[in-house]
Amino acid sequence: MTTVELLVQCWRPEPFGLATGVAASAAYRWLRRDGVAGRDVCFGLALLVFLLAVVSPIGTLADGYLFSAHMLQHLLLVLVVPPIALLALPLRGRPGEAGWGEALASWGLGVGAMWLWHAPTLCNAASTSPLVHRLQELSLLGMGAAFWRPVVSARLAPLPCIAYLFTACVACTVLGVLLTFSPVAVCSVFAHPVDRLGVLPLVREGWGLTPDRDQQVGGLMMWVPACLVYGAGILAQLACVYRTEGRAAPALAGTEAP
Question: In 3-state terms, what secondary structure has residue 237?
Answer without folding.
Answer: helix
